[in-house]
Amino acid sequence: xxxxxNVLNITKAPQPSCQAQRLTASKSLSARQQQELRAILEQGxxxxxxPYLAIAEQINASPDQVLAQIALWQEQGLIKRFGLVxxxxxxxxxxxxxxxxxxxxxxxxAVAKLLSSCPxxxxxxxxxxxxxxxxxxxxxxxxGTDRAIVExxxxxxxxxFALQAxxxxxxxxxxxxxxxxARYTKKGNCHG
Length: 192
What we know:
Layout: H1 3-7, H2 18-26, H3 31-43, H4 51-59, H5 63-76, E1 95-102, H6 108-116, E2 121-126, E3 138-144, H7 147-160, E4 167-172
Antiparallel strand pairs: 1-3, 1-4, 2-3
Helix pairs in contact: 2-5, 4-5
């Protein structure tokens, strides 16, 4: 788990109980309630002790119905990931490095698996090269409180996996831009 993830208790949305699943068979959310739920989820969970209860009250439903609908959307692939947007700078993580790697295409999956196994790596993904200007095809993110520590972590990763001969660049962020999850409803209009 990354240093940042250790600070937070990041978990998936709670799974509905068997009872909630049975309830939704006869009391599923209306199309309007589903639209309202999508709009609310796009804004993030309410910062209250019982966020699913608060959402249920907003859309005139039960918390079990809300949880069951979220679980159904996850099963259907409509929600691929249910997580939080972390404002890491506000938590003291100001040394944030995107390490971009130029990995041979046939080795990308293997190297990505190695990098992903490192607790300090919070994100690792492949992107297409944009030749001739951008040769990098593997990206990983490391968040830290001190630039020197992050650089030492990267050096340790390079040594551990014998990546000294691999071209890479370390891009430290200098500014945090707006962070938010995906948006699918029009602003101010959750009714289609």
